[in-house]
Design goal:
Helices cover 42% and strands 19% of the residues. Bound molecules: adenosine-5'-triphosphate and magnesium ion. Magnesium ion (MG) binds next to loops. It catalyses: L-seryl-[protein] + ATP = O-phospho-L-seryl-[protein] + ADP + H(+); L-threonyl-[protein] + ATP = O-phospho-L-threonyl-[protein] + ADP + H(+).
């Protein structure tokens, strides 16, 4: 997990954020932003920039590298700080709490508002970027792949999907979005992979999940990464989360992806609860029924 920047937020002043925004702006054009661009980008005097650079370097919000020129870039923590600042200015959140989960490409934290919410920082291009760099250590800006851009796009895609699907589909209620971060309702219950369903609950829970997949398809999306790790089961029912890779139903591969999602989830139930599940499932007709949003309960996945 990336270091939690919440601890330094209280020490930061408005001008520190001007500097961070100035670096962010420059990163649209190059990986390392020339120090000479910073006064203009941040609206600070040269002296003020010097002072703010020191403060932000000490807190590891920016990194320095001298190539042909002295360049700076945001660290992930610096980018997180900018998003947190925006959420706090909008009164979306009042504080940051404990980690709720670490995904392959995200860090999820509890945040305080009137009620506890969840904040998901997307890490998409960042984790890939680290791998790419190890393979070929390029320093030229020609190949500049900005993780800021990749992570921000992923967050936008996820937020768009949540806004379209909520409340018709049982997904976390979207609350706010900025840069690579989204704020949403906290999940009720535990991940399906960790849930121990009583035998009489098994088919009912699977039906609820398939029902939500059908509603999502009806609302215009295929999740495209359905698994026991992206469904929560609680007292109030089930919630499907983790939507950045969702694909619109008018996409060429939508049906294929829906079929794969259906197989993933039904096969998980068959592996974990073999005694409660039919041996044979007609996946084609089940997928058809879900796409039409009119499947008839258990009958649809029995031969
Ligand atoms: N709204 C939420 N409320 C509480 N916990 C959450 C919430 N969203 C995500 N989490 C926790 O954070 C973890 C990672 O979230 P999510 O699955 O959305 O991220 P990811 O990086 O895309 O995951 P994956 O590893 O599946 O690619 C989840 O497994 C879950 O435990
Ligand atoms: Mg996930």
């Amino acid at each position: 997990m990336v270091r939690n920047v919440a601890g330094v937020m209280a020490e930061l002043e408005s001008e520190d954020f001007y500097l961070l925004s100035g670096v962010e702006q420059g990163m649209r054009f190059s990986e390392w932003v020339n120090r000479e661009k910073l006064p203009k980008n941040s609206g600070l005097t040269k002296e003020e920039v010097d002072y703010r650079i020191d403060r932000c370097m000490t807190r590891e919000l920016i990194e320095r590298k001298t190539i042909q020129y002295e360049g700076y870039k945001l660290t992930v923590e610096g980018y997180d700080a900018l998003a947190l600042r925006t959420f706090s200015q909008r009164d979306t959140i009042q504080g940051v709490g404990a980690p709720l989960g670490v995904g392959k490409e995200s860090d999820v934290l509890e945040v305080q508002s009137f009620k506890p919410l969840a904040l998901k920082f997307h890490r998409e291009g960042y984790t890939n970027f680290r791998e790419v760099r190890r393979e070929r250590d390029y320093t030229s800006d020609n190949h500049h792949v900005s993780w800021l851009y990749t992570a921000r796009k992923a967050a936008e895609r996820e937020y768009d999907a949540l806004e379209t699907l909520f409340p018709q589909v049982s997904v976390p209620r979207p609350v706010d979005h900025n840069r690579h971060a989204i704020v949403m309702a906290k999940l009720d219950g535990v991940e399906l992979s960790k849930a121990k369903l009583a035998s009489e609950q098994v088919t009912g829970v699977l039906e609820l999940i398939l029902d939500e997949m059908a509603s999502a398809y009806d609302a215009g999306y295929v999740h495209a990464d359905m698994s026991e790790y992206n469904v929560a089961v609680g007292e109030q029912g089930i919630t499907i989360f983790d939507w950045p890779q969702a694909v619109p139903t008018d996409h060429d591969n939508a049906r294929e992806l829906l079929a794969r999602d259906v197989k993933n989830i039904v096969r998980y139930f068959r592996r974990k609860y073999p005694g409660e599940m039919p041996d044979d499932v007609d996946f084609d007709s089940l997928t058809d029924a879900i796409a039409r949003n009119d499947f008839e309960r258990l009958d649809a996945y029995r031969d």
